[in-house]
Amino acid sequence: MSRARALLLVLLVFAAQANSSWVTIGETSRDCSLCSRIGFYDRTEFYAFLVTAGFAVYELNANGKTELQILRKEFDTMLDILPNKAELFEVTMMKFDIENASQGIAQRPNQRGYYSVLRIGIKNDGYATSISKMTKKGTFAPPALNSLSSMQRSFLRNSRRMITDTIINNQEVYDEATNESNKKDTAASDTTRTSPEKNNSQYHQSGYDSAMSTPPPTEKARTSSSSDDGTTLATDPSVKSKYGLLEQLFGKDSEEIPSGIK
Questions:
Q1: DSSP per-residue string spanning 161-181
Q2: 150: helix, coil or strand?
Q3: What is the full DSSP assignment across 67-126?
Q4: Residue 56 contacts residue 188 (beta carbons within 8 Å)
């Protein structure tokens, strides 16, 4: 977890050299998403990284369905070590109509939802204090920044093994990736969207431990084709399907896919 956070912190501090802009944390389909800003193209990889770094957990909602819970306080905890945090970053929750806001048109009151958001960058004289005000200025995507693409590639390379381990060992992450009902990318998985008054410390207390209780893969799970109970992993459909997903995400010849279970 600490390595994942360290990698993200380096990238965020670099991105903060640009003028201030807002990104959504749980919602990933827009240009103004953290997912896009740090270089992810696939929601599965991004969610797996959030779980790996302890920024999110999967929990049952009121309808008995598993959904991603964003732990905003964990972002604050990571950023607190920076002496200039207040100038460069802000983690909060905002209510807005993301569909219309992304198009720069009037927002519909009945379509507004609560979203966990992160401000990244230098506060200039006219910086936007919210996503709604950012769109009124005629921009929705964060500003361009020289060498950001190179930093993103380095971040993704260094975090890929952790993402792989999380997909393999965390069933909720895998289910999210393969459940057809979750293929539509919305912010419904962001718990703050529908529960604005719910104290996030609830999820910090109950959900954080459950996410971190997933043990890292043993060396045998990574390199061997046999499990402790004698089951051949290479012929186990559930295991093979997970590696099929990894091949789809990272490429068939990726070194991050353990060769013993291909």
A1: HHHHHHHHH-HHHHHHHH-GG
A2: helix
A3: EEEE-HHHHHHHHTT-TTHHHHEEEEEEEE-HHHHHHTSPPPGGG-EEEEEEEESB--TT
A4: no
Whether 249 contacts 45, CB under 8 Å: yes
Predicted confidence (pLDDT) per residue in 4-44, tens digit:
999 999 999 999 999 999 999 988 877 789 999 999 988 88
- Encoded tokens for 256: 């991050």
Calculate ∠ Cα 209-44-220, nearest 5°.
65
Residue 42 region by backbone torsions, left for phi larger than 0, else alpha for psi between -120 and 50, else beta: beta
Burial status of residue 61 (CB atoms within 10 A of its CB: 0-12, 13-18, 19 or more): middle
pTM for the structure as a whole: 0.70
Segment 40-67, tens digit of pLDDT = 988 889 999 999 999 999 988 888 888 8
CA–CA dist 16, 4 (Å, integer): 18
Structural contact between residues 176 and 58, judged by C-beta atoms closer than 8 angstroms: yes
Cβ atoms 234, 261 nearer than 8 A: yes
CA gyration radius for the chain?
19
Neighbours of 122 (CB within 10 A): 13
| Planar angle of CA 29, 31, 34, nearest 5 degrees | 80
Residue 106, token pair as written in the block: 């009037």
